[in-house]
Write a structure and sequence with these properties.
Strand order of the largest sheet: 2-1-3-4-9-8-7-5-6
CATH superfamily of the largest domain: HUPs
CATH class of the largest domain: Alpha Beta
Shape: globular
Distance between the termini: 30 Å
Radius of gyration: 25 Å
Number of helices: 14
C-alpha cells in the first residue's frame, strides 16, 4: 500500500476476526494505518519513517502452544509505542518474563473492568467500564517492569503497562463496539501515546491517488468493470480524473441485476463516458454456466471467472489494453483474505477477489482497496458524483445469484426481481431507505402451504433482510415497526402470485454475514 500520511499506525495481524475492526476504529479517527500479517513483516515496514505506533491484534492461538505465532522482537528495538490486544498482550507478557496460565473460567462476551491505577490509556475514562472479552488464557504473573492498571469482575488482570517503554496491553477488545469506552482508549493511544498530529484526509487521498495512477498507468489503456454500484462508479470517476480517454468502461449485464437496473446503468454511464462506454448483454452465458450449481462458493467463482472471460473477449476489440480496474474495497480484501497473507479465517470469496482465475491477460488496478465503504461515498462526493448513485445500498457483484440459495433459473430471477422492487420502493416511498445500510430480499429454496381466496397454495417463501452499519464489517438488523412489515408483506403476497410467505431476518453480523451466500 502507498503511504497516505506522514504518520501511520502498523497493525500486526495474529489471526483475529476483529483485526479489521482495529483498522476501522483507527481510520474513524482520521489516522492512517496499514495491516500486515505477523509473518509478513519486513525491514521496509518496520523502519518506515512515518511509523508512529504499533498495535498487536488478538488471535485464536495460545502463546503456550509450541507452534503458535511469535512476537517479532525487532519491534521492541524501534522505540515506538506498542499496544497489545488479547493475544498481543499475552505475547508481550511472555517476552518480558511474565507468566500465562489457562483460565478455569473462559471470559467471553460482556464483562466489567475496574481501573485500579492511573494510566494515560484510561485518561478521562470512568473507573468501571463495560468491555468485550474473548480469551481462554490469562496473565498469571505480570511481566517485569509492568504495572497492573485494571482487573475484570472475575479478578482477572485486564490491562498492564510499562509507561517508561511506552508498552501497553489489554486483555479485552477495545475495537469491538460492545466495549463502551473502547474508541476513547484507542484515541488515547493514538493521540496521547503515539502523539499523532498528521491526520489522514480524503482530500489528500484523492490528490495522491490521482498522481499515483497517472504515474503507474502512464499512457496505458484501462478497462473498468462497471456495475452501477457505488464502488465501481467511484472507481470509474476516479480513473477518468486520472487518465481521461484511456479509460474504457464496460458494463456486463449478467442477467442477475435488479428490475430495470440494466437500462438505468446504461443511461447514466453512456452520458458520462460516451463512446468509451460499452454494454455487453451476457445473461445467456452466465445462466448456462450456473445451471444446476447450488454451492455459493462455486457460484461466486464461476461468475468471477466468466466476468474475466467476457472482458478478455471484449478487450480484443480495443487495441493494447493492459489493465482491468475493479472496485475492490478494504473489507472485500480482508474477508477474502489472503491479501495480507495472514492467518485470519476466510469468510467467503468476493467475485472481484477470490473468483479471479490464476492466469489472466490483464494486470489488475484497484484504486479503492485502501478504503472502507463510507470513505468511498465521501470520496464520491468530492468527485461530484450524483448523490442518488452514491447513496444506493450495496449490491454484490454476483448479483441475485447469491440471493437465490440453491439452483438458479429465469423463473426464480423473475420472482425475486419483483419482490425486491416492491420492497425497495416501499422503503423509498416511506422515507426509510436512507436509514438502512443495505436492504434486499432472498428467495428461499423451499415452498410452503398457504391459503389464498379459500384455495390451498403451495408457493415460494422469501426472507427480507435490512441492516444498519457504518462499513459493512459489522451490522445490526434494522428494527422495523409492525405496520411497515405488515404492509411490505401484504404488498409482496398480493402482487407476486408465486410467493405466499414472507419472513424477516433478525440476524446481526456477526454471527451472520449480511448476504446469505
Amino acid at each position: 500500500m502507498m503511504s497516505l500520511s506522514n504518520q501511520k499506525i502498523l497493525v500486526i495481524d495474529y489471526g483475529s476476526q476483529y483485526t479489521q475492526l482495529i483498522a476501522r476504529r483507527i481510520r474513524e479517527q482520521q489516522v492512517y494505518c496499514e495491516v500486515y500479517s505477523f509473518n509478513k513483516i519486513t525491514k521496509k515496514i518496520l523502519y518506515d519513517k512515518t511509523l508512529s505506533g504499533i498495535i498487536l491484534s488478538g488471535g485464536p492461538n495460545s502463546v503456550k502452544d509450541k507452534n503458535s505465532p511469535k512476537l517479532d522482537k525487532r519491534i521492541l528495538t524501534l522505540g515506538k509505542p506498542i499496544m497489545g490486544i488479547c493475544y498481543g498482550l499475552q505475547l508481550l507478557c511472555v517476552e518480558f518474563m511474565g507468566k500465562i496460565g489457562n483460565s478455569k473460567l473462559r471470559e467471553y462476551g460482556h464483562s466489567t473492568i475496574t481501573i485500579n491505577k492511573k494510566s494515560i490509556l484510561f485518561d478521562r475514562i470512568k473507573k468501571r467500564n463495560q468491555v468485550w472479552m474473548s480469551h481462554g488464557d490469562h496473565i498469571e504473573r505480570k511481566p517485569k517492569g509492568f504495572k497492573i492498571t485494571s482487573f475484570s469482575n472475575n479478578k482477572v488482570i485486564s490491562s498492564i503497562e510499562n509507561y517508561q517503554k511506552n508498552i501497553f496491553g489489554l486483555q479485552f477488545h477495545p475495537e469491538v463496539h460492545h466495549s463502551l469506552q473502547g474508541k476513547k482508549i484507542i484515541s488515547n493511544f493514538l493521540f496521547k501515546v503515539c502523539k499523532i498530529k498528521d491526520k489522514f484526509r480524503l482530500e489528500n487521498f484523492l490528490s495522491t491517488k490521482i498522481k499515483t495512477l497517472r504515474y503507474e498507468l502512464k499512457n496505458k489503456k484501462v478497462i473498468c468493470a462497471l456495475s452501477g454500484g457505488v464502488d465501481s462508479t467511484v472507481t470509474s470517476f476516479l480513473l477518468h480524473k486520472a487518465i481521461k480517454n484511456n479509460l474504457f468502461c464496460i458494463f456486463v449485464d449478467h442477467g442477475l441485476l435488479r428490475l430495470n437496473e440494466s437500462k438505468e446503468v446504461e443511461n447514466i454511464f453512456k452520458k458520462k463516458f460516451g463512446k468509451n462506454f460499452k454494454k455487453i448483454s451476457a445473461s445467456k452465458i452466465f445462466l448456462s454456466k450456473l445451471k444446476k450449481i447450488t454451492d455459493p462458493e462455486k457460484k461466486r467463482k464461476i461468475i468471477g471467472k466468466t466476468f474475466i472471460e467476457v472482458f478478455e473477449k471484449e478487450a480484443k476489440k480495443i487495441k493494447n489494453v493492459d489493465y482491468l480496474a475493479q472496485g475492490t474495497l478494504y473489507p472485500d480484501i480482508i474477508e477474502s483474505i489472503p491479501f495480507f497473507g495472514g492467518p485470519t479465517a476466510k469468510i467467503k470469496s468476493h467475485h472481484n477477489v477470490g473468483g479471479l482465475p490464476k492466469k489472466m491477460k490483464f494486470k489488475i488496478v484497484e484504486p479503492l482497496k485502501e478504503l472502507f465503504k463510507d470513505e468511498v461515498r465521501s470520496l464520491g462526493n468530492k468527485l461530484k458524483i450524483n448523490s442518488n448513485l452514491l447513496c444506493r445500498h450495496p449490491f454484490p457483484g454476483p448479483g441475485l445469484a447469491i440471493r437465490i440459495p440453491g439452483e438458479i433459473n429465469k423463473k426464480k430471477i423473475y420472482i425475486l426481481r419483483k419482490v425486491d422492487d416492491i420492497y425497495i420502493k416501499y422503503l423509498k416511498d416511506n422515507l426509510i431507505y436512507n436509514n438502512i445500510w443495505q436492504a434486499f430480499a432472498v428467495l428461499l429454496p423451499v415452498k410452503s402451504v398457504g391459503v389464498m381466496g379459500d384455495e390451498r397454495t403451495y408457493s415460494y417463501c422469501v426472507s427480507l433482510r435490512a441492516v444498519t452499519s457504518v462499513d459493512g464489517m459489522t451490522a445490526d438488523f434494522y428494527m422495523f415497526n409492525k405496520k411497515d412489515l405488515t404492509e411490505i408483506s401484504k404488498k409482496i403476497i398480493s402482487e407476486v402470485k408465486e410467493v405466499n410467505r414472507v419472513l424477516y431476518d433478525f440476524t446481526s453480523k456477526p454471527p451472520g454475514t449480511i448476504e446469505w451466500e
